[in-house]
Design goal:
By secondary structure, the protein is α+β, with helices and mostly antiparallel strands. The chain folds into two domains: about 55 residues; about 110 residues, Immunoglobulin-like. A four-stranded antiparallel β-sheet has the order 1-2-7-6, with no helix packed on it. The protein is flat. About 10% of the residues are buried.
């Protein structure tokens, strides 16, 4: 059993680290492999996640009760692929919807843990919800969208319309 002053110091250190982590609620759709700032931000986020691993923090724990999952958006000539990391969730807890301008992913996780032992009883409940909206810069075939959920990862494939594919024009770059 840890001393109360050690536990309090750990909690204070965790709160200070949490305040350093940027909390963003919007998703910018960019070609991250060409954006050095996005790559740097992802690496910094990953570094801070590693720092917090030893403090028994739950992945859905936040100051506001909102979970902000990692989402990757990749576009090629024929489709847009979106993947979202949703650890500990099930397909029935996730809602995916689309309109003319954007794709929305919503979900909620409810977890209860009960631990009984000699002379003690412990019950923990944690809740986390999220809502992410991804702007769609082109038209997609809404009737051909596929969404799959496997091992905590939601994968969505949005095929582009024939019009969107044909409107793409390559521009020749000339060296001077």
């Amino acid at each position: 059993m840890q001393r109360p002053d050690v536990v309090a110091a750990k909690k204070e250190a965790i709160m200070e680290l949490k305040n350093l982590i940027p909390r963003s609620r919007s998703v910018l759709v960019k070609r991250e492999e060409a954006d050095p700032f996005a790559i740097m931000r992802r690496r910094m986020d990953h570094m801070f996640e590693g720092l917090l691993q030893g403090f028994d923090l739950q992945p859905f724990e936040s100051q506001s009760g909102v979970f902000n999952p990692n989402i990757d958006v990749v576009e090629n000539d024929k489709e847009i692929r979106i993947s979202a990391e949703l650890p500990g969730m099930e397909d029935k807890d996730i809602e995916v919807s689309i309109n003319k301008e954007s794709l929305s992913i919503k979900g909620e996780k409810k977890e209860e843990r009960e631990d009984k032992g000699k002379g003690y009883y412990r019950m923990e409940r944690s809740y986390g919800s999220f809502s992410r909206t991804i702007p769609l810069p082109i038209e997609v075939e809404t009737d051909k969208i596929e969404a799959k959920f496997k091992k905590g990862v939601l994968s969505i494939t949005l095929p582009k319309t024939a019009r969107a594919v044909s409107e793409t024009k390559k521009i020749t770059v000339k060296a001077e």
